[in-house]
Structure formats: structure tokens, C-alpha cells
Amino acid sequence: MANSPSGDSMAERIVRVISAFDSENPSMPVATLARRAGLPLSTAHRLAAELASLKVLQKSGTGELRLGMRLWELASRSSSALDLRQVAMPFMEDIQAVIRQHTQLSVLQDDEVLFIERLSSRGSVANFARVAGRLPLHISSSGMVMMAHAPRHVQEEFLARHRDDPAPFPAADELRRQWAGIRREGCATLPGVVDPETTGIAVPIFGPQGPAVAALGVVVPRGSENTSATVPALMTAARGISRGLGTHSAEAGPRHGSGAAAGD
């Protein structure tokens, strides 16, 4: 129910307050919170005080606010991301023991890649992915491999939403071509896209209903990809995770010829 002059509900305003925090802005004064959440300062003060009393937010000694431990506790009790992470972790640890760079698990969320877990080694190459962080779908090997194995209507809806995005967003036909290639290969390999010194490689994880529900990927030094060994290892791990999610072994591989274009 709307209960503010602007027409937004209390739940919507609380979500906007929580969403104002990210890896670049982990803490902030109330005035900044009000601006980032699009709220009047008085409303932000009131909501911040209420959420702090519930330990959803916490206030530092300088008066700045950040997300509270209570929010993490509640989110960690039960979620699809937690279930996915628990199934995937043993397989991710096996991959990480071999590649000794970055191994990551992700899902699609709001046309972006949301990273659920990441394992890294000391001395690993740069990696812009962060746990609970996001990257645009079209620049991430994980995002592209998931979209490559999405139903055609999902792909076309994505393209329609971004029809007017300016360059460097790729043209629709170029994305369709990339998706087709990724689907044929069964993996997405993106050298030097996010960082000129690194390559992202990802494979899809399939759910019981058919489409890819997640991606398993690695970030390695560009020029040292060793795809002949890395890709089969990722595919084997992804099939194991798919089976752990309840997908039958015959359904846990790439869907060739199922009517969706492929993508990187």
C-alpha cells in the first residue's frame, strides 16, 4: 500500500535505503543516504533510526551508517543463493586448487551478473568481480554464457530492453552471433574485456527446469588460459553442480539445437 506523498510504499523505501550501499559506498552519512535513496532528508533520518534500532543498519562512531550484521544474518539463513553456494563449493574448491587464480559462481539478476561466491589465491590477477557485486551481462563471460543458454524469448526481451543503449553496448545482431558461437562451444571465453590483462572463461550450470540457472567461471592471466584443460574441468564441475541441484545427468550439459541463440 502506498503511504507517502510520492506514492511509494514503506517496503519500497526500505529497499531503496538498503540498496544505497554498495562496494564503492559501504558507509555514508544520512544526507548522502537520503540522496542515493531518493528520499527527503527527514524521511531518511527516520528510516535510518528505525533500521538501526533493528540492527539492519549500524552507525559508526563518526555517525556514518552501514549495513548491519543482522541483515547478513537473516539473508544467510535461507536463500536460493545459499543453496547454490553450498552445492557448488566443493567443486569450486577443486577447480581453484588447479587454476590458483580466481574461481567464481554467479547468477543473472536484472540484466546483470550477480556474483554469489569467489575463491582467489595470493598473487592472483586483478578481478573486478566481488561477492554480492555485479557486472554488466555483456562484458562478463559468466553473464554471456548464461544468456547464451537462455530461452530465445529471454534473449530477445533483453535485446529489446537495451535496443537504444549507446556504444560500446554491442548491436543486437553481434550479440546474437556471439551467443550462437558460445552455445556451439559450450563455454564463453572473453579475453581482455573487463581488464586487458585477464581472460574470463565460464560454463553454464543447468537447473532441473532446463535453462542455465548459474555460471561457473574462472579469471586467469591473458595468454595463459590453457583452455584445453580449463574448459573440460569447468564443464565437469558444472555437471556435478547441476546434478547437485537435481538436474538429471542427461540434462546437465549444453542444449544444442533447443532454439536459443548462444552467447559469450
From TrEMBL:
Keywords: DNA-binding, Transcription, Transcription regulation. Residues 70-247 form the IclR-ED domain. PROSITE patterns: FHA_DOMAIN, ICLR_ED. It comes from the Bacteria. Residues 73-131 form the FHA domain. Residues 245-264 are annotated as: Disordered. GO terms for molecular function: DNA binding; DNA-binding transcription factor activity. Gene3D superfamilies: 3.30.450.40, Winged helix-like DNA-binding domain superfamily/Winged helix DNA-binding domain. The keyword Transport does not apply. One of its GO terms (biological process) is negative regulation of DNA-templated transcription. InterPro entries: FHA_dom, GAF-like_dom_sf, HTH_MetabolicPath_Reg, Tscrpt_reg_IclR_C, Tscrpt_reg_IclR_N, WH-like_DNA-bd_sf, WH_DNA-bd_sf. Pfam families: HTH_IclR, IclR_C. This is IclR family transcriptional regulator.
